[in-house]
Amino acid sequence: MAASDSPSASPSVSPSASPSVSPSGSPSISPSVSPSASPSVSPSASPSPIPSGDVVYTIHEKIRIGKKRLSFVKIAFGGDNDAYPAGGIPLTLAGLGFASQADAIIVLETNASAFTFEWDRSANTLRMFDGFGTEESTAETLAAKTLECLAIGW
After folding, report:
1. Structure pTM?
2. What is the per-residue burial (b if ≥16 Cβ within 10 Å, else e) of 78-117?
3. What is the longest distance spanned by two Cα atoms in the chain?
4. Which of 2, 71, 95, 143 measures 20 to 30 Å from 78, CA to CA?
5. Side by side, which strands form the sheet with 145-153?
């Protein structure tokens, strides 16, 4: 079977091409052309903010005290072409091991020297500050960071 006889060899022409009449009165066939492949990811020189789906959680231990739950969680984010998003690193309740709410996030250990982290309760984000107390710039690319945290909630 030749390559032109194969049904998959001509994906760019639609089999339902219909004849049409041009203004001059002569019939013409206009095939439907569809792109065979398009790149889904274009390379970008500027960093993009970290979405909540790119934050990785590893729960080491969960403890229940009455109605409260304590989770020892390793949170990893950043690297490649990630930037610090305006307002902080977005967190998810499920990633922290909670169903309803988080009451506190305490950063116990970090590999990000010279940075201080603060949990923003209203937005459920981790905000990152440099040694001078200035919040990290949204234009800078983040190196890979990991935080060991104690999360309290239910």
Report:
1. 0.64
2. beeebbbbeebbbbeeebbbbeeebeebebeebebeeeeb
3. 84
4. 71
5. 56-65, 68-77, 145-153, 102-110
